[in-house]
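Narrative summary of target 7.
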Amino acid sequence: MKANSMKHGLAIVLFSTALLTRINLFGQAAPPAPASSRPSPAIDLSGYWSPAINEDGLERGAGSEIGDYAGFAINEAGRLWALSYDASRLTLKHHQCDGYVAPYQMRAVGNFRIWEDRDPHTMQLVAIHIWAQTTEGFRTVWMDGRPHPPAYAPHTYQGFSTGRFVGDALMVNTTHLKQGWLRRNGLPESDQASMVEFIVRHGDHLVDTTVVTDPVFLTEPEVRSNDFFRQPSDHGSWLYACDDGEEIVGRAPDVVPNYPLGAQPFAREYSKRYKIPLLSGIAGAPSIYPEFVSKLATATDADAVPLLQPAPGPSPVSRAMDPEPHDGEIHVFPVSGNVYMLLGDGGNIVVETGDEGPFVVDSGSGQLTDKVIEAIHKLSVKPIQFIANTSFLADRTGGNVKLRAAGADPSLVGSFFSMQFRDAGVGATIIAQQNVETRMVDAKLPSAGWPSDTFLDERRRKYHNGNAIEIFREPNAITDGDSIVQFRQADVIAAGDIFNTTQFPFIDIKDGGSVQGEIKALNDILNRTVFQHEGQGGTLIVPGHGYLSDEHEVVEYRDMVVIVRDRVRAMIKSGATLDQVKAARVTADYDTRYGANTGPWTTDMFVEAVYTSLKQSAKY
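Modeled conformation, tokenized:
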């Protein structure tokens, strides 16, 4: 436990430093000084660097063993997430090229290069770039005082970093990280994590100290240090390219390798191999502190076994940040090409502009529709021509009436085909799968908000504003009228409520939703995505709620739904009742990310929807 004692001591030193420099280890830093008053760099980090991996060699080389989570202040969700992890998940096509998140990237083996970017006129330092060979991790640390992006901006493996010199250290603040690893043995780091980092040069050596705060999986910040030594010349090896492919032929698309809660077959292997108590690797925060050594002297399996499965009692609520603005304003975020995401009216809205009228996907809750219309008019002087609804739910159709009235569809005026539309030439044309109109009629919603241009199956397609637009039906996902909308040239998919980054999926059983349909819909999205590099970028997905994503976020969401489905299905097959399934806390490792005990969609409601959906199915 010597390493843990050293880690605890380092944490105390860093915390003292933080107090002196007004740094909050929970991710907040003092505002950067204005560019004109910022001091010159105290250190030059440029050069070729290699990690010295004699420290934590197993972790940074082959990877730590299952059950070895000592020294990490993991909570129950983090521990159970790790214990349910099956390394075969990496054989799935969409996981084969996963990159490393920045905190783990700095611990990777392989070559590193650091260089500066300076203003060509003033020579002021604009950015420091870090390239890591393994997974080709490319980091930019902005040194020009720019702010971090809004919460709804995309996340990347390297995140968004800003830095400033504090004495002889470069202090870096990183946000907008993707979900990744604290350790490659399944110990997770969530997409809500942030990092404060200190890089200090000692001659030809660098010390990089990272402080990771993760409200989803950690109870305390995680402090680690990484050592590098300077190479005299170019290593000559930098690339780590990756393309995915089929590794297991014939596997069903809704299979995600995982172990049932409490049934990890290798949970005791680590403790048996090294003849140490089972508690040593899974205790969480206590394992950080020196006094944990004395506790292990009397620890028995009885102390540890309860930690291998969910604790009885209520589930914790999500600690994830809601990225949607709630200031009564509509916020516009450029997505790709001439496609934009509008946030603020209770659900994400997508707008495509061009030389024709705007094409709008979903209309929000209807509370701020006047401001939505104003925001669209700032993007295009032309009237809204089309509105596509991805479902009939209120957050997708609430603004239909006003948004339609603010638009016009000149393609219907006087055309032969206009005879089939009851509202031809009056406002924008609303498009949706037929069940959307049926449900809105049944609910006695205003007829002016009903879709009049409906389709029955597969897809509706248009070429509009320079984009090939396809509206694909996703039967029986969250409802029986769901669709996704793909803008081909812009490479953007509007997913509606099929995918969001803020909660468990809303599966409306009474209106035709099903967990199998939800999984199929998420896989259909993934069948239409292409990553740009190492599992990120490329096709962008606008969720119904939450931050702009790419395929990585959809994969993690799909995995979650599949794993929960598997657990509920196994309990049904064993004869469990709904109350027993709820009591088993089958979502325990995801509750701190997506769960809620109050509000319109709780964890229990989600579990009940999965249970009911599977029971109604002929085959579990």
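Residues 391 and 608 are 22 Å apart (CA to CA).
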